[in-house]
Amino acid sequence: MAVFCAIQTGFIGLDSVRAGILSRIATVYPDPANTYTFLGKHYSTAGRPKDAVNACEKLVQITPDDPLAHVLLGNAYGAASQPQVAANCYLKALELDPNCYEAHVGLGKARFVLCEYAEALQAYERAVKIRPDSAHAYVSLGLVFSNLGRYEEAMQAFKQAKELDPDISEVQIRSGKACLEAGLYNEAIARFKGAVLCDQGHAQARYNLGRAYLRAGDTALAIEEHRILERLDPVLADQLLDLIEK
């Protein structure tokens, strides 16, 4: 009864309770693949990368021929700041299914973090061929083009993303905030930068990009976002300045 009341009042998250129950069930249930899939996703979202890795490692042991199991493991290692291990997981998924969209996207993300932009470009280009209606893939493609200095192609990719999903900037911001709270600062920066490049006058995106730069220890870039914000939204500019001066 006490646990029920705590859930109702918000002191205990329902997903956390479910995760605790399922982690026990998984040890005795005859087919725990779905359980470990949930646990891996839950722990990743909750900012518990080690637990996510452990759950996904068990998932891969149970279903070694499932490419999506290897993708989940790659996602967990990526969240645990082990991009090279993550890349290997995505490559294993692609051995099992060369047309696995999620594996190409994950591989692109891992290569991007490793600053292997040419390889990241190949992965994202393959992803958009497999799923040409994915706005997120085009955002990622645009970021890689931008880092390679291919700005016209970058803007074309961002334009395509915006045409596919007019709300893509808002989605990027929401996902960037989640990454920021989980301590994934570089990932948050990439999400907010994608939102800014899709809509360069988006004040909330620039404010959050400034916050992410600060969390990552790059005050100079945070100050640059403040300078831009002064024109777009003086209130948000002042809020960012307060964070910079703390």
Summarize the structure in short.
Helix content is 79%, strand content 0%.
3D structure, described in words:
- By secondary structure, the chain is mainly alpha-helical.
- It has a domain at 167-246: Serine Threonine Protein Phosphatase 5, Tetratricopeptide repeat, CATH 1.25.40.10.
- Helix content is 79%, strand content 0%.
- Helix 7 (101-113) runs antiparallel to helix 8.
- The longest helix is centred in the first third of the chain and has 14 residues, at 49-62.
- The relative contact order is 0.06.
- The model is unreliable at 1-14 (pLDDT under 50).
List keywords for this structure.
246 residues, mainly alpha, Serine Threonine Protein Phosphatase 5, Tetratricopeptide repeat, 15 helices, 0% strand
Map the helices and strands.
Blueprint (H helix, E strand, L loop, with lengths): L1 H8 L4 H12 L7 H13 L3 H14 L4 H13 L3 H14 L4 H13 L3 H14 L4 H13 L3 H14 L3 H14 L3 H14 L4 H13 L3 H14 L1 H12 L1
Helix pairs in contact: 2-3, 3-4, 3-5, 4-5, 5-6, 5-7, 6-7, 7-8, 8-9, 9-10, 9-12, 11-12, 11-13, 12-13, 13-14, 13-15, 14-15
Query: Separation of termini?
Result: 43 Å
Mean pLDDT: 85
Order of helices and strands: HHHHHHHHHHHHHHH
Strand content: under 5%
CATH class of the domain at 167-246: Mainly Alpha
CATH architectural designation of the domain at 167-246: Alpha Horseshoe
Number of strands: 0
Low-confidence stretches: 1-14
Rg, please? 20 Å
Helix percent band: over 70%
CATH fourth-tier homologous superfamily of the domain at 167-246? Tetratricopeptide repeat domain
Give the number of helices: 15
Question: Largest sheet at a glance?
Answer: none
Question: What is the CATH topology assignment of the domain at 167-246?
Answer: Serine Threonine Protein Phosphatase 5, Tetratricopeptide repeat
Secondary structure class reads: mainly alpha
What gross morphology would you assign? globular
